[in-house]
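Re: the pair you flagged

First of the two:
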Amino acid sequence: MVRSRQPGRPRVAPCPDKPGVFRWQIQLEDGSVVHAPYAFATRGGADISADLWVKQLRAAV
């Protein structure tokens, strides 16, 4: 069975390297993970960016 690269639900968490900022990650069904290219000042900003990335990933599949 071949697993697709369909994106799962994004996860937003505080950045472990930079206190006070947030990063997202999206796990794909094939097990690979897409990480935020940079940190966001607010959780809301990271959520918006992650949602846009999910839409782009779904369109590319």
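Second of the two:
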Amino acid sequence: MSGSPLYRVALMTLLLGGMTPACRTVTPPARQSPAGPRGDARHLEARLDELRLGPDGPRQRQGLEMLALELRDALRFEPENPHLHYLLGRTAFYLERDAEAGRAFDEALRLAPDVAEYHFMRGFYLRFQGDLAGSEAELTRAAELDPGKAKHWRQLGATLEARKELPRALAAYEAALAIAPEDAESLRGRGQVLMAQGRVDEGVALLEKAAALGTSDDLSLRYNLGQHYQLAGKHEQALEHFRAVIAAAPDDWRARAKLIQEHQALGQLAERDAQLTALRELKQRGAVDSPFFVREQFEESGHKVMVFEHFELEGERAVRYRFEVLTPDGESVQRTLSLGSYEFTNKAITENRTPGVRIFHLDGYFPDGAHQTFGFFDGEPSYDAIRELVVEVLRGKRKPASGTSPLPSRE
């Protein structure tokens, strides 16, 4: 969900906000800029916060570009003002000018090494750069200098979580929650760590609480909770979360596909078909960046099955549905059953077919190259009809009409 060119602005607004603009930074009183249009750091910071909290888009970017120019101009007059360097770093970071942002944060800390906010912002910046060790060091220092701010511990927890330092990440999130018990981001972080540690029920309870409170990345959280419940076979709960994603982001085609899967699992075929229509309309509008989607996930006769539907019949070996029968651990494919309409098959079959109607066929393919054919269809059969045949195959009730085996090895 990072399509916006000013994604960082939105992320910072949601992750780091929660206080009035005047409280977002700690500026040493002795280093305040003199009053005036160029040197008033507080005035410039207020403008930066106003831009950060405003709607994203070209006007926001233009405002940030103008502010960056003013900050550089102000630094010509006050090159030793750490807060101006800090504000320039933030502005450059939001504009994705990472090298400039890094230099500005470094200069702010050179001039004022004991300001917690400067360490905090540099720690966040370094995590974006992939420097997790540097991020940990900066965020640890921010928490040492100002231990009463939940955001310092929360972001330290996020960096430690990224470093797979789960016990320490858990402790950092708990420190944040001791300061702000209803902080949704800290609840989410703690929940994620608990789940990673195998304490699934505790973790899911915290994620549910975070979702109810609202988080900076609520759609991602809702999607992940839906995925969890889907895999656990709790389809009503899964449906609730995927619906929440679609309510906020109607063009999220992956969540739309999840709704199709969950309605299918619950036997709600009319609702499933409505979502299928909506998904196909998204595809026609160019809002789907994939030639196929996951139509269904189910278990049958001890097999896990993942079904893919192709939007279009394309190529010489066009396929509409692909049923991948997985190993019990779900890591590899045991065999594939597909409904296809191959060009050479349509050319070869000329008898007993309706003119202008494509021939379809249900085939089975194995990793060793073996192939089976279970039947031919004059025209495209429905998904429900093909699914029923696949279930019969998996139950051993439908035998192949023909098949080929791989050639024996010469070794």
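The CA atoms of residues 120 and 139 lie 5 Å apart.

-B.
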